[in-house]
Structure formats: C-alpha cells, structure tokens
Amino acid sequence: xxxxxxPTSVWTRLRPTILKxxxxxxxxxAAVAIFxxxxxxxxxxxxxxxxxxxxxxxxxxxxxxxxxxxxxRSDRLALGGLLVSVxxxxxxxxxxxxxxxxxxxxxxxxxFEVFVRWIGLVVIGRGLMLWLLLLDEGRRAYRTALLQRVxxxxxxxxxxFAVLLSIPTFPWVDVHWPDPYWRSLGVAAILALLGSxxxxxxxxxxxxxxxxxxxxxxxxxxxxxFEDGTPLPAGPDGKPDFSVLEQPTSETQP
Length: 254
Fold this sequence. Notes:
The chain is mostly helical. It has helices at residues 10-39, 44-73, 75-97, 107-141, 145-166, 179-205.
C-alpha cells in the first residue's frame, strides 16, 4: 500500500497563481510602453497605467516573498504580510488613479509624487512585517509568561507606530498635523523600541531558551541482498554475513 502524499499547503497552491500574475503584469507593462512609443505621446493616462502595473508587480513579488520565506517561519505572519500587501495594492491603485492636481504642478508631476509617497508606504509596511518577524523569533525562543506578554504588547505597539507613521503619506491628508499626533507617534515608537530591547534582556536573565529539537537517531540501513534479491544470511552476531560473497577463484589451465 503506497503512502499518502504529503498535504499541500495554501502557500504552495498560491505560488503558481502569483507567478502567473507577475508574468501577466510584466507583459501588460511592456504593452503600455509599446503603445506609448507607437502613438508618440506618453501623457498622464499612460503614466498612471504604467505605475498601476508597477504597483501590481510589487504586490505579486511581496506576496511571493511571504509564500516562499515568511510562511516557513510563521503562517500567521505570512497571512499578515499578505493582508499588508493587499492594503498596499489597494492604496497604490487609489493613490495613483485619484492623484489630484495641486497648485502649479501638472498631473504627471503630481502622479509621480504620489507614487513616491506610495513607495514610502511600502517601506513602512514591509518594515513593520520584518520587525514583527524578529519579535516573533524572540517570543518563540523564550517560553515564559512574562516574555510572551511583553512580545505581544511590543507587536501591538509596533503596529500602532506603523499606522500612525503611514497616515501622513496619503495624498488626501495634506494637512498640518497637530503636535499631539506627533507626540503620540514618538511615544509609540519609544515604547516599541523599549519592548524590542527588553525581550532579549529579559530572556537572558529571567527566561530559559527553548531547547532545539533533538537530532534524529541513526538511520537503519536496508539489509543487503544478492543480485537476484535474496537477502544475505545472518552471522552469529546477527549482522549480515559478507563472507558468503568471497568465492574462491581458481585459474583454469589450458
């Protein structure tokens, strides 16, 4: 009876779809560029189409990174990274498509400025995921109640800090933010950094590192057999008797 095949993870099923999306987006970007070359003009509409395709390619690449790398460490963080990528995709498409004209700026200049803002949003979002991944490693290393609480609280503070930092990057909120907002942002950053520093220190003095998995035992080799598949006989010690393979050779005289 043959063994059942190993279960296929969600990320394994998503990988081909992500790769196909990347290929389709690259082809679409090339089509937009060819259209601009043939027509001879590359205006605001063509720029927006090209930047939206770039946003979609970035979304597919980030999702592929979550499926290939982050999912090996934590499925929850991989799912969180996928949700962050979806938010970045929606935000990027809306920011570029609805880029308003501000003052003396042309639509093309404003669109490119909005795209730079979106890149800053990507840096914030993916930086948050890297931060959470490092905090999760510390949480897994020290299995104590105190460190678990500190890790969860630090993750929450890091998320609050990232959200507060990302809000001013949106083009629809070009306003003067009051001082209490920036002070709240600074307090969240200080507390998150404090928690990140406390996790290894508390683990070093009060925690006990989770032991690594024990190595597997010695492998059992298959019993040797003759060329026709017959097993070798066992010797007095219970091991294969290789002496039966030593056949005396005699030279035949002509």
